[in-house]
Design brief:
The structure is a single chain. This protein is of the alpha+beta class. The protein has a domain at about 75-165: Immunoglobulin-like (Sandwich). It contains six helices and eight strands, in the order ααββββββββαααα. The chain has helices spanning about 1-25, 45-60, 165-185, 190-200, 205-215, 220-235, and strands spanning about 75-80, 85, 95-100, 100-110, 115-120, 130, 140-150, 155-165. It has a five-stranded mixed sheet.
C-alpha cells in the first residue's frame, strides 16, 4: 500500500510540473560561431535548426532536478528511472545501453495493477540497443517495464515503473505539438523531431523528447554526437 501511495504522489507531482511547463514559454538567445566562418552570414534556416537543437540539449543538461547516471550493467534510457515516470507516447520506443558482456534476453510490458503481461519479446539481437514496442497502444495508467539480462552466464531481472499520461493531458499535449508544427510547416524530419523534443522539454517530459530523437532515421552527425553524449551521461561506465 505504501508503494502505491508514493507512486500516486509522484504522478500528481509530475502532472503539476507538466501543466506548469505547458503554460510557460522559454525565450532564449543563443549566439552561433562556426570555426572558419566568423563574420559569414548564416542562413536563417540553419540558425533556427541550431537554435532548436541547442534548445533541447541545453535544457536537458541544465535540468538540476535530474539525478545522476546509472552504473547498472543494464541501463534503460527510454523509459528511464532518472527522467520521470510520466510518458505521453503510448507506443514507446525502448532504448537502453549495456556494459560489455551483457546480453538482453527478454523484455516485457506489464500492467502494474493486474500484473497482466501486455507485450513481450524474447528474440533480441545481442548487439541491439533499442526495440520498437509493437503491441496495442497503451491506455492511460501504470505499467512496469521488465527486463531479463544475462551476465557471466547468470540471468538478472530488473523492473522500471512508468505511467502513460491521462487522456486529458495527452490531448492537450497533442494540441500543443500540432500548433507548433503548423507554425513551421516546412521543417525537415530532423528539424521537426528537434522541435517536438523541445516542446516535450518545456513540459519536463524528457523521455518523450528523447524518444523523438532516438526514433529519427538518418540523423545528422551532429545529432548522433549529442545523443551519444546524452547516453553517456545517463549510463556511466
Amino acid at each position: 500500500m505504501r508503494k502505491f501511495s508514493m507512486r500516486k504522489f509522484s504522478l500528481i507531482r509530475a502532472s503539476l510540473l507538466f501543466s506548469m511547463g505547458l503554460t510557460s514559454s522559454i525565450i532564449s538567445s543563443i549566439p552561433i560561431a562556426i570555426p572558419g566562418m566568423l563574420g559569414a552570414k548564416i542562413p536563417r534556416a540553419n540558425r533556427e535548426q541550431t537554435h532548436r537543437q541547442k534548445g533541447f540539449f541545453e535544457k536537458f543538461f541544465g535540468d538540476r532536478e535530474r539525478r545522476g547516471g546509472s552504473r547498472s550493467p543494464f541501463c534503460s534510457i527510454v523509459p528511464s528511472p532518472n527522467l520521470g515516470s510520466i510518458l505521453w507516447n503510448n507506443m514507446p520506443l525502448l532504448v537502453w545501453k549495456t556494459k560489455r558482456g551483457v546480453t538482453v534476453k527478454k523484455i516485457a510490458i506489464v500492467n502494474f495493477d493486474t500484473e497482466e503481461t501486455i507485450w513481450s519479446e524474447d528474440n533480441i539481437d545481442p548487439a541491439q540497443q533499442f526495440l520498437v514496442y509493437t503491441g496495442m497502444p497503451l491506455a492511460s495508467g501504470e505499467y512496469q517495464y521488465k527486463v531479463v539480462y544475462e551476465l557471466n552466464q547468470k540471468e538478472f531481472p530488473t523492473e522500471i515503473d512508468f505511467d502513460i499520461m491521462a487522456e486529458g493531458d495527452r490531448d492537450r499535449m497533442a494540441r500543443e505539438l500540432q500548433q507548433r508544427a503548423s507554425q513551421n510547416p516546412n521543417l525537415s524530419p530532423e528539424e521537426l523531431a528537434l522541435q517536438r523534443a523541445d516542446v516535450f522539454a518545456d513540459a519536463k517530459l524528457w523521455v518523450d523528447g528523447l524518444q523523438e530523437l532516438f526514433a529519427l532515421q538518418n540523423p545528422s552527425p551532429i545529432l548522433v554526437g549529442e545523443l551519444q553524449k546524452l547516453r553517456n551521461s545517463l549510463c556511466q561506465d
